[in-house]
Specification:
This protein is of the alpha+beta class. The protein folds into two domains: 2-179 and 269-289, BirA Bifunctional Protein, domain 2; 187-259, no CATH class. It has eight helices and eight strands, in the order βαβαβαββαααβββαα. It has helices at 12-22, 46-58, 87-101, 137-154, 187-201, 205-214, 245-258, 272-289, and strands spanning 2-8, 37-40, 70-76, 107-112, 118-124, 218-222, 225-231, 234-237. A five-stranded antiparallel β-sheet has the order 1-3-5-4-2, sandwiched between helices. Strands 6-7-8 form a three-stranded antiparallel β-sheet, with helices on one face. Strand 6 (218-222) and strand 7 form a beta hairpin. Helix 1 (12-22) runs antiparallel to helix 2 (46-58) and helix 3 runs antiparallel to helix 4. The chain is globular. It starts with a strand and ends with a helix.
């Protein structure tokens, strides 16, 4: 499993990104059309969750100008394991990841099961105690390794989603150390899988290019515009790697439209009894993990 994160600043990030995730057409939905969500220490409607994130941030013990309001994380399974992974597996791994970051954090997420199955997770910048949920680079590497150990132990059928999380090479990326499958996957397919994770996480071209740089992937330009990846002895156009740059522009536009908008609730809402049932199930899962 590849794990990547990107920070978001400003209190407006909460509602904007919650709505962005809920309104994504690719999000997994239940039989009633409601998005299947992951909720950790938050509950209720999108506006209620936004208020909970904001209130928690207001109670932060240490406020700094460059604090992240939240972190947007993506947990990605290889497309080769598409037929092996289930929503329940991805939900379990997502909850484990959240608890490894901080069990007292506020988090919200959704699943995408098409293409490269993955989970989008928003984690608040401060926990219920007002402490920062930020982890060091070294600790984040450890968390990715611990999460992978859970994956390998609990879901050995996801063998094609095993990656090498840097080992002693902390400066390197998951993508760069992904296990090679010579004879089974071409370099082009390998690159497509690497780029897909950053593409699914990015909200704009700039964020996409920044994420590629984190993976030590070089881009090349033609006519003053970035056109693709410069890789070893040849170049690959974004189009041939399944990347739609126009879609990144649309995402940025959608986020701009969401910012400051007065939304009406459009998602089917669960009853109080359903919320209690969900919370009881979550607590049972945490007991099993602990």
């Amino acid at each position: 499993m590849i794990v990547k994160t990107i920070g978001a600043k400003g209190a407006g990030s909460y509602g904007r990104l919650i709505d962005y995730i809920l309104r994504d057409e690719a999000a997994l939905r239940d039989k009633d059309g409601a998005v299947v969500t992951i909720q950790h220490n938050v509950f209720g409607s999108p506006r209620e969750m936004e208020a909970q994130f904001k209130m928690n941030n207001d109670q932060r013990l240490h406020h700094r100008a460059n604090n992240n309001a939240l972190v947007h994380a993506i947990l990605a399974i290889s497309h080769e394991d598409k037929e092996n992974v289930t929503p329940e597996m991805l939900q379990r791994l997502s909850r484990d990841f959240i608890n490894m970051i901080d069990p007292d954090s506020l988090a919200f997420g959704a699943l995408h099961m098409d293409g490269n199955p993955h989970a989008h997770i928003l984690i608040g910048g401060s926990n219920l105690l007002g402490e920062s949920t930020r982890v060091s680079r070294e600790r984040f590497q450890e968390i990715k390794q611990e999460l992978q150990e859970v994956q390998m132990r609990e879901y050995p059928e996801l063998a094609d989603s095993v990656v090498e999380h840097g080992g002693g090479h902390m400066a390197q990326s998951d993508a760069e150390y992904q296990i090679r499958r010579e004879g089974r996957v071409s370099r082009k397919e390998e690159l497509k899988e690497m780029l897909a994770v950053s593409y699914d996480l990015a909200h704009s071209r700039k964020e996409f290019f920044d994420l590629l740089a984190e993976d030590n992937l070089k881009v090349y330009e033609r006519g003053g515009a970035v056109k693709g990846i410069e890789d070893e002895s040849r170049n690959y156009r974004f189009q041939t790697l399944g990347i739609d740059m126009a879609e990144l522009d649309k995402r940025e536009e959608r986020l701009s439209e969401l910012e400051g908008a007065d939304f009406k609730e459009k998602e089917p809402q669960k009853s109080e009894e359903e919320h209690l049932s969900i919370e009881e199930e979550r607590m049972r899962e945490l007991d099993e993990i602990g």
